[in-house]
Amino acid sequence: MILPLDDWDLSLNQTFNRLTNSNNSQLAVQVGFLILQKPEATLQRALLHVTQNQEAVKTLCEVVQSLPLLKESHPSRIGKGLLFSVLFQYLQTEAWTKTEELNIFNFVVCLCQGEGVMLSIAVLAFSSTFLSCDELLVDLIFPSLSFGCNAIEGSRVASTMPLERALKLLNRLLQSAVKYISQELLFSSVMCLCELLESNSKQWSLVKELCTESLQLVCKGITNVTNDAKS
To answer: InterPro entries recorded for this chain (predicted)?
Structure first.
């Protein structure tokens, strides 16, 4: 049954006000129902909620993973799924505290790790990632690192997020989801970071520290991938 607008708004507010990481299957089902009814508006509220509530990261990640329709691409959304499109916009425009930033990054990493699954909404096992690390790198992070990275083959989106945020998100992906990043893009990351170090002078202290961390993580990731290929 489709809820009237006023009832939908009330249900949305009540559901998210009660949602925590307590594996409450009834609330999780309700979130899934709200997403199916008004996907974009509910996802926007879910991102806001997960940013402000660390305890909701895992539950909302599992709810989203249980709805494969959110991955389906559509021409009106830059050829991406609804989840990617809404997240893409959110990462560029919102301002957060350090804690809120960590929460949303943890949510992104959770979606990128290809692990699932759901309470009583569905019993699913995901063999692939729900959110692509490679797409995040090519379409959002690389263009944010330097103008030179916009020319990387396959990039279809000319949008950026703040430089510091892009570097921090890259580092989180390299720390926790590096095995889901293609080897080609690991090498591309090195090129982007080197270009950034060479060209950026206004934010040198910030860029130097974060880029150094990124390069160390990338080199470690490449080493691990190479060793795995040999074994």
So the answer is: GEMIN4
